[in-house]
Inverse folding.
């Protein structure tokens, strides 16, 4: 399954799917990875920015929310 990259509202970050279960943040200005890929226990079906958070939905309907502007790394904040 492939996804188009999405930009954060401030255009500082880009998110891409790096595999069926992972998403990766990138620095839009430098093209450098921002932290490690965010791994999930199921297949990712969608992702989108909501302010300074990234919302990820899995095939089984589970949703995860990540804080994206933590220093150098995304941090899962829900669940």
């Amino acid at each position: 399954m492939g996804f188009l990259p999405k930009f954060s509202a401030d255009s500082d970050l880009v998110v891409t799917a790096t595999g069926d279960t992972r998403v990766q943040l990138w620095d839009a200005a430098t093209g450098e990875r921002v932290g490690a890929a965010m791994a999930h226990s199921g297949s990712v079906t969608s992702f989108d920015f909501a302010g300074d958070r990234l919302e990820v939905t899995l095939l089984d309907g589970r949703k995860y929310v990540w804080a994206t502007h933590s220093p150098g790394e995304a941090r899962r904040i829900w669940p």
User: Anything to note?
Assistant: The chain is about 0% helix and 45% strand. The chain has a mean pLDDT of 86. The radius of gyration is 11 Å.
